[in-house]
Amino acid sequence: MSFNLYSSTGERARLIAGLRALAEFIESSPDVPAPGRADVMVFPPAGTNAEMCAEIDSIASRIGGQAHWTGGGHYTVSRWFGPVEYRAVAIPKDNDSGESEEEK
């Protein structure tokens, strides 16, 4: 499976510019309410549970984090930048065999 479904170079540049513009806007507009924290989330491309979890492990190694399972059954890793969280999340399928529950 190829994991090249994230933003293109142009989309990435626009995202970065947008985040900077948002920060500047919040900084220069003290009358506009700002959140106490922000989340930026990415999800691996669709694949098998093993492929999606492997992508989270790969992201974990790139951001210096430790992937873990949440109580809700998601496989995730995050890195904090002050009150801003970058989080990668895999939401495994309940049934990875391709069969419907009724076919089992």
Write structural notes for this entry:
The protein has helices spanning 9-28, 49-63, and strands at 38-42, 68-69, 75-81, 84-90. The chain has 104 residues and is α+β, with helices and mostly antiparallel strands. The chain has one domain. Strands 1-4-3-2 form a 4-stranded mixed beta sheet. A hairpin with a 5-residue loop joins strand 2 and strand 3. The two termini are 27 Å apart. Mean pLDDT is 88; it is low at 97-104.
Using brief descriptors, characterize the structure shown.
4 strands, alpha+beta, four-stranded mixed sheet, 104 residues, globular
How many strands, what sense, and barrel or not for the largest sheet? 4 strands, mixed
**Which strand order do you get reading across the main beta sheet?**
1-4-3-2
Oligomer state equals single chain
Mean pLDDT: 88
Low-confidence stretches: 97-104
Spatial extent as radius of gyration: 17 Å
Question: Order of helices and strands, N to C?
Answer: HEHEEE
Total of helices: 2
End-to-end separation in angstroms reads 27 Å
Number of domains: 1
- Total strands: 4
What proportion of the residues form beta strands (DSSP E)?
A: 15-25%
Structural class of the secondary elements?
alpha+beta
Helical residue percent band: 25-40%
Shape field: globular
